[in-house]
Write a structure and sequence with these properties.
With about 260 residues, this protein is an alpha/beta fold. Helices cover about 35% and strands about 20% of the residues.
Length: about 260
């Protein structure tokens, strides 16, 4: 593929990484008839966008478990805000909310209804900072060592702290979701924290981008029956939603982004 424009070349490389293929700089340089320095610039740019992990001689595809909270925050932001607005419409005045760590719940923190006298607890540093800027919200921060990948605190101390709460409505982070496996997580400690959170919450809600239905994660959190409300995208395929409806989950569908 000689004379491929830089952005088009980068798109080709990004597509291969997205399909789970590793790439080698020398081989790409030969394929595109450019210098290895040009390929390395491409790989640096893709890594900065969170699309690959640089290694000696090339790059590896990013697994969902290794994408940091900082990277996830900028991905599909408009879609996450649409989910957040739909979820916020169900919040009742005076509720005690818990916003689990996650980029979609961070979007929810930005659109929480005003003048509802809400109390918000969270284990997420970013969510806590967003809530703190609102004078009408009361904040409870679950602390401890911060896991940079998860973006919050999920160790034993955090589990102990959340177990002392009595939450009206929790918004649990969804890493992977399926009719059979239910809600799953990529990290054992985060799965343990989420199970503790479910145990002290009257109503559980999850905001789910459509890509979460295609993912599989190793640690089970809870069956679908433990989740009362799922907020899904406006264009979520019907064949993905039907098993959720049959399981008795209430669905809220977001407006188009």
């Amino acid at each position: 593929m000689p004379d491929e424009p830089p952005l088009a070349r980068r798109d080709v490389i990004a597509s291969r990484l997205a399909h789970g293929h590793s790439v080698v700089a020398a081989a790409l340089a030969h394929e595109f008839a450019v210098s290895e320095d040009a390929i390395r610039r491409d790989l640096r740019a893709l890594a900065d966008e969170g699309l690959c992990r640089r290694v000696y001689g090339g790059a590896l595809p990013i697994s969902p478990a290794s994408v940091s909270m900082a990277t996830r925050t900028g991905m599909a932001r408009d879609r996450k805000l649409s989910l957040a607005r739909a979820a916020a419409s169900a919040i009742q005045p005076g509720e005690f909310l818990f916003l689990d760590s996650g980029s979609t719940n961070l979007a929810l923190a930005e659109v929480l209804p005003e003048d509802h006298e809400l109390t918000v607890a969270t284990n997420s540093v970013d969510i806590a900072a967003t809530v703190l800027r609102r004078q009408d919200l009361k904040l409870i921060l679950i602390g401890g060592p911060v896991d940079a990948l998860i973006g919050g605190c999920v160790d034993g101390a955090a589990v102990q702290s959340v177990s002392q709460l009595n939450i009206d409505r929790c918004f649990i982070g969804a890493c992977a979701l399926g009719a059979g496996a239910g809600l799953s997580d990529f990290h054992s400690s985060d799965a343990t924290f989420k199970r503790a959170l479910l145990g002290v919450s009257t109503h559980c809600c999850a905001l789910v981008t459509t890509d979460k239905f295609a993912k599989r994660a190793p640690y089970r959190v809870a069956p679908l029956t433990a989740i009362h409300t799922l907020v899904v995208e406006h264009d979520a395929p019907r064949h993905l939603l039907e098993p959720l409806i049959q399981a008795g989950v209430t669905l809220l569908q977001a407006e188009p982004a």
